[in-house]
Design brief:
Strand content: 25-35%
Structural class: alpha+beta
CATH architecture of the largest domain: Alpha-Beta Complex
CATH superfamily of the largest domain: Naphthalene 1,2-dioxygenase Alpha Subunit, Chain A, domain 1
CATH topology of the largest domain: Naphthalene 1,2-dioxygenase Alpha Subunit, Chain A, domain 1
Number of strands: 17
Number of helices: 6
Order of helices and strands: EEEEEEEEEEEHHEEHEEEEHHH
Strand order of the largest sheet: 11-17-16-15-14-13-12
Radius of gyration: 23 Å
Bound molecules: FE2/S2 (inorganic) cluster, fe (ii) ion
Helix content: 10-25%
Number of domains: 2
CATH class of the largest domain: Alpha Beta
Amino acid sequence: MDFLLNAWYFAAWSADIKQGTPFTRTLLNRPLVFIRPENGALVAFDDRCPHRASPLSMGRLEGGRIVCGYHGLEFDFTGACVRNPHPSGRIPPGARLRSYPIVERHSGVWIWFGERAADPSLIPDFSRLDDTGTSVTRRDYIVMDASYELIVDNLLDCSHTSFLHDGILGNEPMIAAPTEITQSGNTINVIRYARKVPPPGMFDMLFRQDGAPVDCWTDFRWDPPSCLLLDVGVTAPGRPKQEGTGLFGTHILTPETARTTHYHFAATLWNIHAKSQTAEMREKISDLRRFAFEKQDQPMIVAQQRIIDMTPPNQLERVMLETDLGVVRWRRIMEKLIAAERHPPDRIGAEA
Ligand code: FES
Ligand SMILES: [Fe+2]
């Protein structure tokens, strides 16, 4: 699988990387080590010693350096080798760790792998996560044994909520909602608006808690490569959105490998039922969403991946439904971006 490199990827929730302990995570098939120094900004390196490729994360942090646990080379936090403990003391040329641009924003750590300049203004807006108060649910995380592509497909075709999450996040009458799409630059929004339907269980809990019909919308924003923000909510039939209630769901995916994906999620609640404004309810919503993604989406997507992997490509049907507008569009945008990265315009010209 070709990954898009000139893009910001979400490496981890900031709070999960502690001072004094190297934090490891593989992203896009690259084993990385993250170090949060006592003074100074977070740094990320290839987790591979230039001597024998052992993981530096198995070494130790000591006085602003990381010491390889195998033969003791020491590196500072710019990645330079600053000490060879062996008799010559000579620092071999090329003894250097590759580091990556990092930005901490919206409760997360963003990393850039491409050759082009890493422009922080290109980080998608997830400022809904900036609230440190009670409106944001648990900043949660699972690893799924499936390609990130299948998970983006899952999210951008919300019609699955009527089946896979029936009763919690969707229900059968909501299938009638048409699917629409808008695009601005490389950002797309996939929008559905179900009118006068029974309230999905979780939203009834957040809204009036009376089971009465609602209008329910989902508006999923996708930014390359796999950053999604869902605006979802309910309101009384025919009434404006702002009279209702809902949440902004963060769904940020980062490939670990071609077949495994880091899935970060959280929700920012707004205008919820007075009775629901408790820490217990926030935990309950956190648990309910995790249940939906981990116990309902995940088994389906992992099984789907297994079947795709066992099927010869020429036998993979690609039947499309009208709900697939977003699925088709995001994949097309990514194909273009990845192709442009592999064959930049000047090279295409040179080859032609
Ligand atoms: S592998 Fe790191 S010093 Fe030998
Ligand atoms: Fe789902």
